[in-house]
Write a structure and sequence with these properties.
CATH topology of the largest domain: 60s Ribosomal Protein L30, Chain: A
Helix content: 10-25%
Distance between the termini: 22 Å
Shape: globular
Number of strands: 16
CATH architecture of the largest domain: 2-Layer Sandwich
Order of helices and strands: EEEEEEHHEEEEEHEHHEEEE
Number of helices: 5
Strand content: 35-45%
Largest sheet: 8 strands, antiparallel
Structural class: alpha+beta
CATH class of the largest domain: Alpha Beta
C-alpha cells in the first residue's frame, strides 16, 4: 500500500472513500485468496554510490550525525548542494528525491530513506521513515533510465516466477519519484503496466508498504510498490 500525500505542501493529508474522509483513516481492500491470486513487489531501481557510511547518532526518523559529522553538513559536502541553505526546505526535498540514503542489510535489498527536512540549528536531517542508530548507509546515484530498467526487470521476474497473468494492477509510487524522474515517471508507469498488459490504478504516495525481491513486507521511501491481481 501507500501513505496519503498532499503534493509536498506538507500541510496535512487525508484518506478518503465513498464520500467520507479522515486525517487519521486508512482505506483497506480485502481480497479472498481462494478466488484471487496476489503477487507484490516494492522496488526502487536506485544505484548506490560512494563509500559505506555509518549513522552514528539518530532517534526515530531524525539523523543527527553520519560518521560523527553533522548529517546536514555531510549532505551539503558530498552531494554537491551549493544553493543558499536559507532555502533549506526546497534543497533538502530535492536532495532527498535524487540522492536518497540506502540502509544496507545482509541477505536482502537495501531499504530507501529520503531526507525531507533539515534543522539548521543542530544540523540534523528528518527522514521519511526510521533510520536506526548504527545503520550502514550509502547514498544513491542521480536517477536516469537505468532506474526504470531495473524496476521493469524486477517486475519481469515477478511475472516469470509468481504471476504469469494479471487481470489488474495497483501501483503506489512515491511522490519523490515524480520529482526525481520528472517526465520519465510516465515512462516508468507505462512500462510497468505493459509487463502484464493489464489495467492499472494507483496514486503517488508519501511512503510505500511492500515486499522487496529478497525481503519481507516493510516501509519504503522513494519506491514503486506494485500489486498484481489475477482471478483464479
Amino acid at each position: 500500500g501507500g501513505m496519503a500525500g498532499d503534493d509536498f505542501t506538507m500541510t496535512g493529508t487525508f484518506a478518503f472513500t465513498n464520500g467520507h474522509y479522515d486525517i487519521t483513516g486508512i482505506v483497506v481492500l480485502i481480497l479472498d485468496e481462494d478466488k484471487i491470486s496476489i503477487a507484490g513487489l516494492a522496488t526502487s531501481g536506485w544505484q548506490p554510490v560512494g563509500t559505506v557510511r555509518t549513522i552514528t547518532k539518530s532517534e526515530g526518523n531524525t539523523v543527527y550525525t553520519i560518521d560523527d559529522e553533522p548529517a546536514l553538513d555531510v549532505v551539503i559536502k558530498y552531494m554537491g548542494v551549493n544553493k543558499n541553505i536559507d532555502e533549506w526546505k526546497e534543497v533538502i526535498v530535492n536532495v532527498g528525491s535524487e540522492f536518497p540514503m540506502q540502509i544496507q542489510r545482509e541477505g536482502t535489498e537495501p531499504v530507501i530513506r529520503a531526507p525531507l527536512f533539515a534543522n539548521k540549528n543542530d544540523r540534523s536531517l528528518v527522514c521519511a521513515g526510521s533510520v536506526p542508530q548504527g545503520s550502514k548507509i550509502r547514498f544513491s546515484l542521480a536517477p536516469d533510465f537505468n532506474v526504470i530498467e531495473k524496476v521493469v526487470d524486477e517486475c519481469e521476474e515477478v511475472k516469470k516466477n509468481e504471476l504469469p497473468k494479471a487481470d489488474a494492477l495497483i501501483m503506489f509510487s512515491c511522490k519523490a519519484r515524480h520529482l526525481s524522474l520528472g517526465p520519465m515517471v510516465s515512462d516508468e508507469i507505462d512500462q510497468v503496466k505493459n509487463v502484464w498488459d493489464a489495467p492499472l490504478a494507483g496514486f503517488f504516495s508519501y511512503g510505500e508498504m511492500g515486499k522487496s525481491t529478497k525481503g519481507k513486507h516493510e516501509f519504503h521511501n522513494n519506491t514503486c510498490s506494485l500489486v498484481g491481481l489475477s482471478e483464479k
